[in-house]
Amino acid sequence: MEEELRNLSKVWIYAFISISYCYFISSKISKGVLRLLSIIPVCILFLVLPLFLYSLHFSGSSTLFLSWLANFNLLLFAFDQGPLCPLPSNLCRFFCFACFPIKVRQKQSPNEIKNRKNDPMPRWVLAVKVLVFGVLLHVYEYKDVLPRFVVLALYCLHIYLEAELVLVFVGAVVSTLLGCDIEPVFNEPYLATSLQDFWSRRWNLMVSAVLRSAVHIPVKRLFARFFSPNTAVLVGVMASFLVSGLMHELIYFYAIRLPPTWEVTCFFVLHGVATTTEIVVKRTLRWRPPHRAVSGLMVMGFVSVTGVWLFLPQLLRNNVHERATSECLLVIEFAKHKFFISSS
Predict the structure, then answer these.
(1) Are 79 and 92 in contact (CB under 8 A)?
(2) How many CB atoms are closer than 10 A to CB 199?
(3) What 3-state class would DSSP assign to 104?
(4) Which residues pair with 182 in a beta bridge?
(5) pTM for this model (two decimals)
(6) What is the pLDDT of residues 80-94, one digit of tens each?
(7) For residues 137 and 329, is the Cβ–Cβ distance under 8 A?
């Protein structure tokens, strides 16, 4: 554990030095190809750095933050786009905005505050999710006697809870460091009433924002030259899902260190097709969705079934779920030893 923590420290020191170069040097170069050329070596380095980590959580989170978010944000920065433009006031803010899934909450009028739907997670909700996740880790001890479909449902719940809790923790640390309020990363995805609602307004909102800026909008503008605006939007949506699938393949590769099977890409392409179909149906047929309870169950059912079919198999074949559980329990024991036993 301590050796892996040292490796993690080295990876992020290199990342900070690289981001500092972009802040002090690349930002002085005029936007466009020249700035892009100055940033490409950093992007290549960010693709390599997670290979020095072997912990599932450290390599996975570093791949998300560096190989995905930071690289996409730096590519946008090369053309004066994205969260790094205008240039943040100091290096610390530039580093945080580049590498982490955060967005500063802007001051809002009383009417906007009254109507907004994505408030920060209440503390009691967070406490419940932490408790459920802790119980979940110990329920796995009885997975051999549980029905298969129950175990698979628990794995789906595990992925959601761990993804949200990790990003909430990172957001809280960054918010404290910067001294500002940030937008929530998740917006209760289990309350989604459509796939479009799930992917664009509830699940991993900061990653969705990066994909929108780096993939959807450029692709939509390109295809709008040749097709109708509505068709260009659909192509942009499909491109976003395809890129998301490829980036998840990268995360899987760093976690498993085996060639990709493209199952997770198929998962996102399938959801891209389903989401674009949903958009077309809403536009052309003016389809009236069923009651929220019914549509919510349909969305969660579709996400869960396709997740078990295409998202989970590669993880299960390579015992990633067991590694994830072991690492979580190891972190808990490590924290107990460092902060409770050592202080007593």
Answers:
(1) no
(2) 25
(3) strand
(4) 104
(5) 0.91
(6) 999 999 999 899 999
(7) yes
